[in-house]
Structures are given as structure tokens and as C-alpha cells.
């Protein structure tokens, strides 16, 4: 399994961070490439619920996420899209100075593995995924500051 990850300081406590992270109305402002929701289970973000969304043009295409964990400090979904399948986890731990320290991690397998794909993963794909996770967390931090009344 391959992985990409990013970290950020967030201005909200862990429960508030997870509430904001799972608020689909806010995703267009921070989730990299998010276009619009196609299907949302009424019980979202409960364990077992499913979301299908479409990226912006030129993006990831159709993405399906199924919640596998929704805890006090962690939210995990199984992610399926044309290029890869994996598990994405947002972990929020209380920061002693206030807010949360957040890690966003994607553990994934490429949809079409092979020797050239493995090289492409090391040279390009993993870096692109890591950069996308970083951009998502950077925008998420701004949303959290607004939520906390700091902006």
C-alpha cells in the first residue's frame, strides 16, 4: 500500500474540526477538486454511509467515499475512483496551545498497477497526491479560522 499525507494546525478543537470536515456544504471551499455531490446517504457522516461526488472538469472524475470510522479524533473513508482505491483518514489531536494538530493521510493502491505505474507513482503520483492533501488542509485551516471567528 502506498501513502501520502499532510499536516496542519487548525484553530478548532478536535470535535469541532471533525464536524467541519464532515460538513459537505463546506467541501467546495476546501476539498481539492471537489465539484458537487451526486449522491449523499441521509445518515452521512455515520459509519457505513456513502457519498458519491464529481470533481471539477479535468479532475479525478467520479469519487465514491464510504465512512468506515467516525470517532472523536478520527474520520476515515474508503475512497474509490478511476485511478485509485484506498483509505483516507483525518486525525485531529488537541494542541496544548489551542486548536488541533491535524493529519490527513491517504493510503492507496493504483487501479492499474505495473512496473511503469510504480515508477510514475514514486516520481509523480505520490507527490501530486501529497500536494493536493496539503492544499486541502491549507484551505481547511482558513475555513476553521472563519468558523472560530478569527477571520
Please describe what this structure looks like:
- The longest helix is centred in the C-terminal third of the chain and has 33 residues, at 115-147.
- The chain has 151 residues and is of the alpha+beta class.
- Strand 6 (84-94) and strand 7 form a beta hairpin.
- It is globular.
- It is built from three helices and seven strands; from the N terminus they run βααββββββα.
- The chain starts with a strand and ends with a helix.
- The model has no long low-confidence stretch (mean pLDDT 93).
- The protein has a seven-stranded antiparallel beta sheet with strand order 1-7-6-5-4-3-2.
- Helices cover 30% and strands 40% of the residues.
- The topology string of helices and strands comes to EHHEEEEEEH
Principal-axis shape equals: globular
- DSSP strand (E) fraction? 35-45%
Q: Count of helical segments?
A: 3
Count of individual beta strands: 7
Largest sheet: 7 strands, antiparallel
Structure characteristics:
151 residues; alpha+beta; seven-stranded antiparallel sheet; globular
Topology:
Elements: E1 2-10, H1 14-21, H2 27-30, E2 34-40, E3 50-55, E4 62-70, E5 74-80, E6 84-94, E7 100-110, H3 115-147
Antiparallel strand pairs: 1-7, 2-3, 3-4, 4-5, 5-6, 6-7
Summed up:
The protein is of the alpha+beta class and 151 residues long. The protein is 30% helix and 40% strand. The longest helix is centred in the last third of the chain and has 33 residues, at 115-147.
Amino acid at each position: 500500500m502506498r501513502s501520502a499525507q499532510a499536516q496542519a494546525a487548525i484553530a478548532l478543537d478536535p470535535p469541532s474540526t471533525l464536524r467541519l470536515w464532515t460538513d459537505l456544504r463546506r467541501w467546495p471551499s476546501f476539498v481539492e477538486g471537489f465539484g458537487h455531490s451526486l449522491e449523499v446517504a441521509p445518515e452521512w457522516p455515520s459509519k457505513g454511509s456513502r457519498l458519491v461526488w464529481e470533481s471539477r472538469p479535468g479532475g479525478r472524475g467520479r469519487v465514491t467515499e464510504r465512512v468506515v470510522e467516525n470517532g472523536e479524533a478520527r474520520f476515515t473513508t474508503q475512497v474509490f475512483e478511476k485511478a485509485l482505491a484506498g483509505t483516507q483518514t483525518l486525525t485531529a489531536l488537541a494542541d496544548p496551545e489551542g486548536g488541533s494538530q491535524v493529519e490527513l493521510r491517504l493510503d492507496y493502491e493504483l487501479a492499474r498497477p505495473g512496473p511503469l505505474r510504480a515508477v510514475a507513482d514514486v516520481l509523480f503520483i505520490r507527490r501530486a497526491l501529497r500536494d493536493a492533501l496539503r492544499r486541502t488542509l491549507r484551505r481547511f485551516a482558513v475555513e476553521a479560522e472563519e468558523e472560530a471567528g478569527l477571520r
